[in-house]
Design goal:
Layout (H helix, E strand, L loop, with lengths): L21 H6 L3 H30 L9 H36 L7 H19 L28 H29 L12 H33 L6 H4 L5 H33 L6 H15 L14 H29 L8 H22 L3 H7 L3 H31 L5 H27 L16 H31 L37 H4 L2 H10 L19 H14 L5 H20 L8
Helix pairs in contact: 2-3, 2-4, 2-15, 3-4, 3-5, 3-8, 3-13, 4-5, 4-18, 5-6, 6-8, 6-9, 8-9, 8-10, 8-11, 8-13, 9-10, 10-11, 11-13, 11-14, 13-14, 14-15, 18-19
């Protein structure tokens, strides 16, 4: 199984068809540039959420600390969770959706390039809207889960929760716009011969995630609209004090979204790892069809386990039994993936480079998080652990040891494709080992603190309860993670300008995105490839390789090939700005509501009435 070589460029190429300057970034509809915007913005929010976590850990590092007030602590842990989930991990996945899906399926762009730009700008403006209040100590303070009725006016009279309710609805618009776009792209724009069962595993997992987004986000939208009406218009969906509403209504709506959300966060990382491990094992992914079906099964079962977050609310033995069995069942397709990754590496020619180390770390650490998750499928055990730090340890092993490790594997693996340069391998391994050690020092002791009864969401604690040493270790570990993040940031920024030249396929990978130059031209493929196999660059299929050689031509513009690409436009950004401004009016005045709505509607009509763009050929 030989890797087919394609001519290596002398330096990353700047294609004359591309524009430069700030204006070109504000108006771009190129999926690769939008993916880059997502990447930089999400990495910023990731570091912002990390700073919030460091302050939390400084507060909890020793008993009876008073570095921040109890009120500000509530804002910190609420915004840490909200930032990491909605502004960091999901958008980091979206960065890869944007950049890789068209390249992996042989398309020149996404189905709706301007809608793609709109989804990014809504995300950016929504992220600013929900983040800025913490600078003025009025950030959301009800937990990232926002349990009603505690978040109604009766118990949270300030504007803090208003930012959370409105901000999440704004971010939901971005996620749904992107999801419909990628579903249409994957279904309609695959290259000739690119059947569903020939798609790369990252595209498959992304495909599954878009269905999860489309089905799950409307549920939290309904929950948030109910809460918004309670807070702004005096309705009584959750206000048990005045109307006797069901206090569990919010929890059911939230977790019907919240558990599929776990897989929205983890499946893209699974997909990235499923690209990294075969490329660095020099073996096709073991059990490809079973990996696809297990991803689909995870998504289906993910909608049937939401109430395992609610074993402590008194649902009764029948409901507890159903959700307990469903939770145990969902561990099977997840375990399938773990063993298939191990089988892929077994007897392969494994290269322990930085992306591979992060990928292996996901396999190991997600397994730990998954095993503790199976423990919580038992209602009696969960009843004891659900409000303790044991749960904090569990979901950080899943989301940090899983999602974040997989995303960093993807960044190191695809940085050469995005920039034409390699990340520094020595700095990368320092980053990895600091992250790996720091993550385990931070979160593993939380299991023991939780078993000793340390409650979640605690602001401070007295000495003598047996938690001191575990909290001290966790805080030290968090500082190690902080140092590791600085190492990564330095490596990322330095290598972008002066990293070693990568060439089109530095890893000897097998899929379509590696048949074109790095970074790719604005048109992606000069000639849309014809796909006849799952691993064209390893299996030596002539039709695929003919397209690959043609696409490896350097310095050519879209015009040289007679390709017409979408026009850049500022209109998606203006529509997004009008949308967010309209929501801001709920906190200020009706004038702002009508001003934002006017901007959004007028700019949307100019967008829709502009001449149709010949976007795909």
């Amino acid at each position: 199984m030989a890797s087919t070589a394609i001519a290596t460029p002398l330096a990353p190429t700047a294609y004359s068809g591309e524009q430069s300057g700030v204006w070109s970034w504000l108006t771009t509809v190129d999926h690769k540039r939008i993916g880059t915007l997502y990447l930089f913005t999400a990495l910023f929010f990731f570091m912002w959420g990390g700073v919030e976590a460091l302050i939390i850990r400084a507060q909890l590092g020793a008993p009876n600390q008073h570095l921040v007030s109890a009120e500000f602590y509530n804002q910190l842990f609420t915004m840490h969770g909200t930032t990491m989930i909605f502004l960091a991990i999901m958008p980091l996945s979206a960065a890869f959706f944007n950049y890789l899906i068209p390249l992996q399926i042989g398309a020149r762009d996404v189905a709706f390039p301007r809608l793609n730009a709109f989804s990014y700008w809504v995300y950016l403006f929504g992220g600013i809207f929900i983040t800025v209040p913490i600078l003025f100590a009025v950030a959301p303070d009800g937990g990232w889960f926002g349990y009603a009725p505690l978040t109604t006016r009766a118990y949270s009279p300030g504007i803090n929760i208003d930012f959370w309710v409105i901000g999440l609805q704004i971010l939901g618009v971005s996620s749904l716009a992107a999801a419909f776009n990628f579903l249409t792209t994957i279904i309609n724009l695959r290259a000739p011969g690119m059947s569903l069962m020939r798609m790369p595993m990252f595209t498959w997992m992304s495909f599954v995630v878009q269905f999860l987004l489309v089905l799950a986000f409307p549920v939290i939208t309904i929950a948030l609209v109910f809460l918004l009406f309670d807070r702004f218009f005096g309705t009584n969906f959750y206000n048990t004090v005045d109307a006797g509403a069901d206090p569990l209504l919010w929890q059911h709506l939230f977790w019907i979204f919240g558990h599929p959300e776990v897989y929205i966060l983890i499946l893209p990382a699974f997909g990235l790892v499923s690209e990294v491990i075969p490329a660095n094992s020099k073996k096709p992914l073991f059990g490809y069809p079973v990996m696809v079906y297990s991803g689909i099964l995870i998504a289906v079962l993910g909608f049937g386990v939401w109430a395992h977050h609610m074993f402590a609310v008194g649902m009764g033995p029948i409901a507890d039994t159903f959700f307990s069995l469903a939770t145990m069942l969902i561990g099977i397709p997840t375990g399938v993936k773990i063993f298939n990754w191990i089988a892929t590496m077994a007897q392969g020619h494994v290269r322990l480079n930085t992306p591979m180390l992060f990928a292996i770390a996901l396999v190991a650490l997600f397994t730990i998080g998954g095993i503790s998750g199976v423990m919580h499928s038992s209602p009696p055990a969960d009843l004891q652990q659900t409000d303790t730090y044991f749960i904090v340890a569990h979901f950080h092993y899943v989301l940090f040891g899983g999602s974040i490790m997989g995303i960093f594997a993807g960044i190191y693996h695809y940085f050469p494709k995005m920039t034409g340069r390699m990340l520094d391998e020595k700095l990368g391994k320092i980053h990895f080992w600091l992250y790996f050690v720091g993550m385990n020092i931070t979160f593993f002791p939380m299991h023991f603190a939780g078993m000793l009864g340390m409650p979640r969401r605690i602001y401070t604690y007295d000495a003598g309860q047996g938690w001191e040493s575990y909290n001290f270790y966790s805080s030290i570990g968090s500082y190690i993670i902080g140092v590791a993040t600085l190492v990564f940031a330095w490596n990322f920024l330095k290598s972008r300008r002066s990293g070693a030249i990568a060439g089109p396929n530095p890893w000897g990978a097998a899929t379509l995105e590696w048949t074109i130059p790095s970074p790719p031209p604005d048109y992606n493929f000069a000639k849309i490839p014809t796909v006849t196999s799952r691993y064209p660059l390893w299996e030596g299929k002539e039709a695929d390789l003919e397209s690959a050689r043609f696409n490896a031509q350097e310095g050519k513009t879209a015009a040289d090939f007679g390709i017409v690409m979408p026009y850049n436009t500022i209109k998606p950004m203006i529509v997004a700005f009008g949308l967010v401004l309209m929501f801001c009016g709920l906190l200020t005045s009706r004038v702002i509501i009508f001003l934002g709505a006017g901007i959004m509607i007028v700019s949307l009509f100019t967008w829709l009435l502009s001449p149709l763009e010949p976007e795909h050929h």
